[in-house]
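Feature request disguised as a bug report, sorry. It would help if multi-protein outputs had a clear separator. Right now it looks like this:
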Amino acid sequence: MRICNLASGSSGNCTYVETERARVLIDDGKPLAYVLNALNELGVAPDSINAILITHEHSDHIKGIEKFARAFNIPIYAHTYISEILFHQLPNCRHLFNFFDSDFDLEDLHIQPFPVPHDSKYCVGYRLSEEDAVASIVTDIGTFTDVVFEAIKSSALVFLEANYDPEMLMSYPNYPPFLKKRISGGRGHLSNINCAKAIERLVHAGTRLVVLSHVSEHSNTENLAISTIANYLESKNIIPNVNVRLDIAHHEQRGTIFRITPTSKK
């Protein structure tokens, strides 16, 4: 499995996942030209994409889908619970929609959606597996629940939200009080320290690589997210770059390309 974040944050989210026979995008909240350029950097033809998987209906996750999917006739997959709202938001893509309410397969990629607490109509994360090579994507999550942990605990690689620093959030002058309350609530976004606590659980369950995702442009920084989480983990005797590798998904730049190889192909 080859996996790479193309963009992450309130300005747009998109992640590319590839197996031997499948190529998919998780969300697409970026302009068409941006996604085409990022795919070109990966050596991926846009018309080779098998599907776009939607986590939820917020605009930073879907606003690029209509142009991309229609341009290359790409099937779109989303949970049944958001079918009606997607018909309204992406009216010209009705013929491309496929709705699910349980696990499904795309070629040799097994996809397990699971519910994530976030203030959308319905939000899912994805556990993606090619045989025993497993990666999970969990962004836009207000609380790291036991349901989420059980779904992703055996993942070699996890994309996990580290959205905000509480002090920066509360002092940011352009956010009104209701928005600060929404972000920091149990169905909003995950703070750096709560992300760190989630990573602690995941490391003990076998995860060795975490990509900090959806880092806020206004109430966080990449360096602060990394340092806060690293310091917490070290206090729990989990040493970054020894027991777990921490990486960052950027706002406007393709991230690191990761490869997870099934045991049968090693």
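(second protein starts here, but nothing in the output says so)
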Amino acid sequence: MITVIIVGIAGGTGSGKTTFAQALQAAMGEECVIISQDSYYVANTDLPFAERLKINYDHPDAFEDELLIAHLEMLKRGQAIEVPVYDFEIYARTERTILVQPRRIVIVEGIMVLVNPELRRLFDLKVFVDTDADVRVLRRLVRDVQERGRSLESVHAQYLSTVKPMHEAFVEPSKKYADLIVPEGGHNQVALETVAALLRQYLEDGRSPRDRGR
């Protein structure tokens, strides 16, 4: 069975964590796969659309961490998983899934991936992408309007009511669990090369970072 190294990449909304994860995947090649925590929002398919609109999607309870944890444990055992497909326009999980085969490096990225201790314990390397709040909110505004079919007014209201307070309550404090804090996300080439070099060394050793001291 291959040794699977799991990297957790957290950071606030619009911090650049997805860009950093994608750049890291490009650097590592076919050995690497990305799983987004966004895919694991609670399904909510049993709720009417009006009720789904009222949910706080920036709270840890909005995610089905149990399923994500089970899937990561399956990948570590060399088993394929069916990743849910979430539709941000209807605020619900679809019936579709995406088949993900085990890879030697699994990157898990999302705003809350360092919050849950049961999820954290699966990570061999924990990264927090740290970006100025003004930059993050502007990036989220553009993304939600252009990619997720949201209105300017709804993005503004959601940011003030849930995104900002939940970031301060959960996301920012999770920074203390990171092994590495990366300013400016995917634009930080030095940090990207450093993490890629570490992962290449782990692959050469055939052991996860947690095994190296044993």
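Even a blank line would do. Unrelated, but nice: Residues 152-171 form the longest helix (20 residues).
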